[in-house]
Write a structure and sequence with these properties.
63% helix, globular, 71 residues, 6% strand, 4 helices, single chain, mainly alpha, two-stranded antiparallel ribbon
Length: 71
């Protein structure tokens, strides 16, 4: 199965828009590190990463708490 970062990013964004906590966590990881592929470039954005992690943590994603501690 071929990876499609562009489609994955769009799925995570759509799920986050519907308030799925794990989607916020995954978006946080993408924003924290940036993402570059042949189809998409997402620049590192620590403000958006922290915002996404906070939304995830506030909705029960314990892994997000660990990421927030890095800020």
């Amino acid at each position: 199965i071929e990876k499609d970062e562009y489609q994955a990013f769009n799925y995570f964004r759509a799920a986050a828009d519907k308030s799925y906590p794990l989607a916020h966590f995954e978006l946080g990881k993408i924003y924290a590190n940036g993402l570059t592929s042949s189809k998409i470039t997402v620049n590192q954005n620590l403000r958006l990463a922290l915002s996404s992690y906070l939304k995830a943590a506030n909705n029960g994603v314990s892994e997000a708490d660990q990421e927030i501690k890095k800020y």
